[in-house]
Design goal:
- The chain contains no helices and eleven strands.
- The protein has 127 residues and is mostly beta strands.
- Strands 1, 2, 3, 4, 5, 6, 7, 8, 9, 10 and 11 form an eleven-stranded mixed β-sheet that branches.
- A hairpin with a 4-residue loop joins β7 and β8.
- The termini are far apart.
């Protein structure tokens, strides 16, 4: 299963973008939708995530580098999750991936916990 992520593009510093991703719908318990990014020439890193319970309760987590600027959200009716990115900086330039962990086991940062990944969407922030 490959998730479909979209919404990347070119934006000036200080601008905003919203990334979208559609969960697989295969989870039957609390699951995790995560966002990771890979800057040019660097390793992939955790950006943000949210755990979603069977009842729809959500808890969000953010890397320190994006806290206060990025926001995870969900539209259950559309089966979509979003990463709203505000006050973008040139150092936010990266290939962004959404990922899904079908069963939350207490960690949202480890890439190896995620079962499905999107193809990546490029975000470029110009100075």
């Amino acid at each position: 299963v490959q998730l479909q992520a979209s919404g990347g593009g070119l934006v000036q510093a200080g601008g905003s973008l919203r990334l979208s991703c559609s969960p697989s719908g295969r989870s039957h318990s609390t699951y995790v939708m995560g966002w990771f990014r890979q800057p040019p020439g660097k390793e992939r890193e955790f950006v943000a995530a949210m755990t979603i319970t069977w009842f729809g309760d959500i808890t969000t987590y953010y890397a320190d580098s994006v806290k206060g600027r990025f926001t995870c959200s969900r539209d259950n009716a559309k089966n979509m999750v979003y990463l709203q990115m505000d006050s973008l900086k040139p150092e936010d330039t990266a290939l962004y991936y959404c990922a899904e962990d079908l069963t939350y086991r207490g960690d949202v940062v480890q890439e190896s916990d995620y079962d499905y990944w999107g193809q990546g969407t490029l975000v470029t922030v110009s100075s």
